[in-house]
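Title: Prediction job returns without error message
Component: structure pipeline
Severity: low
Priority: P3
Assignee: unassigned

Description:
Job completed but the reporter wants confirmation the result is attached to the right record. Sequence as submitted:
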Amino acid sequence: MKEFAGTCQGYGRSTYGSGQIAITETVRDDGTYTSVGQSVNEGKIQLVDGRMIYDSTFSSGTINLEERAGKQMLVFSGTMKRAGQQFTGEYVRTK
């Protein structure tokens, strides 16, 4: 999980209509992470069946490490646990 470790900043969105939420993601070497936005969210990233998945307090789904315009990004795509809405997040690595 070391390739995911670091701090990223960006925005999360759900289909629930809350708009974009500014979020800072801090991923540790062991794959655990903390998201700070409107609230604090804890989660873990794991390799399962060849895919990177995440499971957190509020949502679960897949995660990819991508490069766009020369910047590393974490891209989350999942489902909110409470009501089943789709969630996406795109975060640029800052550290």
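Comment from assignee: result matches the submitted record. The CA atoms of residues 7 and 47 lie 20 Å apart.
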